[in-house]
Design goal:
heterodimer, A: alpha+beta, Uridine Diphospho-n-acetylenolpyruvylglucosamine Reductase, domain 2, Uridine Diphospho-n-acetylenolpyruvylglucosamine Reductase, domain 3, 3 domains, 4-stranded antiparallel sheet, B: DNA polymerase, domain 1, 2 domains, 5-stranded mixed sheet, 5 strands
Chain lengths: 295, 165
């Protein structure tokens, strides 16, 4: 067998050249961005690349940016977590994503790892996806036939799978900017704050929270979780229960029950299903009780 | 394949498999052994180097991705015959090194942090120093003395200035 490190690597200089390569031989291509996942997999022998590697790092001028566009906050796929952590725009518009970026690996990883790589690696424990789900993120996939945009919640059909086609390159992530004030939450439960893979992640956003005589009423809410299902997951049913309803202790209890029916945690080397279930529920309680306090 | 980049200020070309770990290129091809291998999976930080001024793990860096970049290794901070950098001097003064395995990476992560302080004019605190070296494991657990050393170097100026000026 040939040494995988000697596999052919193609490094296009432009996005259109990269997309052209994928149009022709996309099914043989492994896409390399910051390398923080792939290089470990290569070292450990988990990754046996066949075909060739498409190194997209030289397209940085086209794919590394954070900017407002048509009312959305847009990030190029090669935006690093260090870029996200220091972005004033994201600190204002997406504090939960910034919080996640600051806890991904440590500085060495944040300087290399990209938002596109984290999304395409499709790990159920990926740190950026729960906040992105809570922020109504959409991903832009580009192929020779043009771009298509789809919501992140529809991106992961199964464990470590995405709906992206071999001819497509993830180029951008878009977050809906909210005009009204939001309350945002990110909590990653792990043995330490740096260099850890999560046991449970909950990210949340609520807006249009109104005070009523019986308690606060949540206009809109989004909940994204990680490490508690085969894929990153948005908790649609729990959201539905909480939206437009007055947040009473009994509603919070019902929401916790609903959350438990939506997640499907497992026992593994990092934690147990029971721990994950209980802690995930507590994280939701934590977010909701603070809404009670703040409103 | 031939890969050209700037290494410690000098234009350098190496012949390397494209996905070779840059750590191996440094140590085996170029003979620069100050950068150490610890875990080989981006957890321990002892292979920390600077690429375009940012601290990264050399074990996770495919050789092909240093193309056109500026790389700094521990060797750039001081000449074997010359004075140490301020951070190296400070770590000596605070006993910020025990077995020494984590030290090269601590120095590089600390150097990146001190430069950032200089650029932003921020004052260091224990929390920001801990955050800066959160990706560098010391299994002698001498963190307090390392943090003290970084703080001492910050109080004296930047690590690029050598100790005698």
């Amino acid at each position: 067998m040939t040494d995988p490190r000697k596999i052919e690597v193609f490094s296009p200089e432009t996005l259109s050249a990269a997309v052209q390569v994928l149009a022709e031989v996309g099914s043989e291509a492994h896409i390399l961005a910051g390398g923080t996942d792939l290089m470990v997999a290569l070292e450990k022998g988990f990754w046996q690349p066949k075909g060739f590697v498409l190194n997209i790092s030289r397209i940085e001028p086209e794919l590394r940016y954070i900017r407002m566009e048509d009312g959305d906050v847009c990030m190029g796929a090669l935006t690093t977590f260090a870029d996200i952590a220091r972005s004033d725009l994201l600190n204002t518009e997406a504090p939960s994503l910034v919080a996640a970026a600051r806890e991904i690996g440590a500085q060495q990883i944040q300087n290399r790892a990209t938002i596109g790589g984290n999304i395409m690696n499709a790990s159920p424990a990926g740190d950026s996806m729960p906040p992105l789900l809570a922020l109504d993120a959409r991903v832009v996939l580009k192929s020779n036939e043009g771009p298509r945009t789809l919501p992140l919640f529809s991106f992961y059909p199964a464990y470590r799978e995405t709906v992206s086609q071999p001819s497509e390159l993830l180029t951008e992530v878009r977050i809906a900017r909210r005009d009204s004030p939001t309350q945002d939450y990110f909590r990653k439960v792990a043995p330490r704050r740096a260099q850890a893979i999560s046991k449970v992640i909950l990210a949340a956003r609520a807006w249009n929270v109104e005070e009523t005589e019986e308690g606060p009423r949540i206009g809109s809410i989004r909940l994204g979780v990680g490490s508690v299902a085969p894929t990153p997951l948005r908790l649609f049913e729990t959201e539905r229960l909480l939206e437009k309803a007055v947040l009473t202790p009994s509603l919070m209890g019902a929401a916790g029950h609903m959350l438990e029916t939506e997640i499907s945690p497992i026992d593994d080397m990092r934690s147990t299903a029971e721990y994950r279930r209980q802690v995930c529920r507590r994280l939701l309680d934590d977010f909701l009780s603070n809404l009670l306090l703040e409103s | 394949m031939k890969i050209t980049f700037e290494l410690n200020g000098a234009l350098t070309t190496v012949d390397s498999p494209p996905l070779a770990r840059f750590l191996d290129v440094l140590r085996d091809t170029l003979g620069l052994t100050a950068t150490k291998e610890g875990c080989g999976e981006g957890e321990c930080g002892t292979c920390s180097i600077l690429v375009d001024g940012e601290v990264v793990n050399a074990c996770l860096l495919p050789a092909i991705q240093v193309f056109g970049r500026s790389v700094e290794t521990l060797e750039s901070l001081s000449d074997p015959a010359g004075p140490l950098s301020k951070l190296q001097e400070s770590l000596l003064a605070t006993d910020g090194a025990q077995c020494g395995i984590c030290t090269p990476g601590m120095v590089m992560a600390g150097t990146a942090f001190l430069r950032q302080l200089k650029a932003t004019g921020a004052q260091p605190c224990d929390r920001s120093i801990r955050q800066a070296i959160a990706g560098n494991l010391c299994r002698c657990t001498g963190y307090s003395k390392i943090i003290e050393g970084i703080k001492m170097a910050a109080a004296q100026g930047t690590p690029q200035e050598s100790a005698h000026d």
